[in-house]
Predict the 3D structure of the following.
Amino acid sequence: MSPLPREEITMVDLASQNLSLDASGRSRRARRKPLPRWIISTGTIVALLVAWEIFGRDINPVFGSYPSAIAVAGWELVASGELVRALAESIQPFVLGYAMSVVVGVPLGLVLGRFRTVEAALGLLVTGGYAMPLVALVPLLVLWLGLGFWVKVAVIFLMCVFPIAINTWLGVKVVPKPLIEVGRAFVAPDLVILRRIVLPATLPYIMAGLKLSVGRGVVAMVIAEFFTAISGLGGIIINAANAFDTARMFVPIVVLMVLATLLNALVGTIERRVAPWQAEMAGNHD
């Protein structure tokens, strides 16, 4: 066998070197672990707070504030007990209204998606209720229920029930038909199919609706306090805005943001408990 020419030997050596470099690069990338999510989130929040602190000091206090001033105002509200009382006053109607929306919205969505007659009768009403500006109904609700606790519950319920029902309805529609056919093959009643097959397959959509409704419920809670008896966290916002105390006004806004974030995290934890297979199917998207 004749030896390879020098040029071909050089090309083979270069190719082998490139392959070895690619392999070593891939091994280094495999060994390099991605940053945890909490580090990325914490870094983003810290960077935003630092930028806000630096540039916020140059803004007229009537038009804006900055984190250190908001922290001082928050400490004063906590020390006086006003913030704790306002949070307790706001959270009670929120919990009841949100719980009622879950109790009504999930079964309504399941029935809408499973039974064509119910979908034909109520589907347009649910879709229209979601699209309707429910804030316009607050004065009417005040006439019916007064200015107290129950009008807040009603506003929160109406803002939360429709996203839960629509997401559940959509989830039922995308349940694979072979799963339902298996239940029918075993002569299972419709309620058994709904409870044992449709409901577990729809859980990710239900949880998505619960997360969406958390934000709408927090907004509804503040809106209800604006339009009804000025109380709770919304009352602090209104009174501070009327006094041009911007730092004090931002305190309940920050509390509401933290509250909504914690509630979303709670719903995510419940989802991992009741539907652990969904996380395994979704995998890691880092």
Observations:
- The two ends are 53 Å apart (CA to CA).
